């Protein structure tokens, strides 16, 4: 396991941020921690990257504890933090060169990744003149220039317009193809559904469910179907839509009859979205402010 979190607990005074969460991440996967504000996502990331010490439990990267050993363990990890901590008055190139020296790497990947995020032509632009989406891309490039095996991103698309978010998603999928293991946090269920091999639902410091998005949707499906049928045989004007429970025996007869009499137009299963499942499990919406 490249990333392993086991029974991780953390409190800030009387406020409990993590109540004992566990998850694992295999090489080459994308894992998404999904949760509303205050769920404990950033606390998890900060512990995993050695910025915070856990009260108990384990947070391991490459099987090693990070706290107190950041320099060694994180030399192989790229981190995109929640807040853009770039030097605003410096250019993109100056920011990246600064990190190149810090990481003591050659910097040969700087132009490669700037090209990938369509910012090569903006190298000489000062960070203060960039849009939020562009800054996010610079943070991503900064996290990649030392060729890390693990990439950790805290809310990478928060506040981005849909086009910028989409372009970032495509880059993350390409990085996965290159074999990079990715852990990200998000409160956007569509993003997690699209990107992640596995997802963990974090709510008030607890992982309430985890698994492959497909399996979660299947497990929480309510066996409903939407049937579109003709009132009379092949009369386009009289198209009727009906939602039915698959475990209702009458629905079976009704559907069989529609097929036999040639009145069935279409039938679709109604799967819940990840957001529906989150609400079902927690009674909370992903956009809640956590209060
Ligand atoms: N330094 C701190 N001091 C006190 N409480 C904190 C501190 N950091 C986090 N918390 C609390 O711990 C809980 C989890 O916060 P955390 O930032 O991990 O949530 P999050 O899921 O990342 O939310 P967001 O999406 O808003 O960043 C919250 O109740 C928060 O107020």
What are the key terms here?
291 residues, alpha/beta, Rossmann fold, 2 domains, six-stranded mixed sheet, four-stranded antiparallel sheet, 10 helices, globular, binds adenosine-5'-triphosphate, ATP hydrolysis activity, ABC_transporter_ATP-binding, ATP-binding
Structural write-up:
With 291 residues, this protein is of the alpha/beta class. The chain has 2 domains: 3-218, P-loop containing nucleotide triphosphate hydrolases (Rossmann fold, 3-Layer(aba) Sandwich); 223-270, no CATH class. Helices cover 33% and strands 28% of the residues. A 6-stranded mixed beta sheet has the order 6-7-8-3-9-10, sandwiched between helices. Strand 9 (198-203) and strand 10 form a beta hairpin. Helix 4 runs antiparallel to helix 5. The relative contact order is 0.15. Bound molecules: adenosine-5'-triphosphate. Adenosine-5'-triphosphate binds next to strand 2 and helix 1. InterPro entries: AAA+_ATPase, ABC_transporter-like_ATP-bd, ABC_transporter-like_CS, ABC_transporter_ATP-binding, P-loop_NTPase. Residues 3-229 form the ABC transporter domain. It holds the Pfam family ABC_tran.
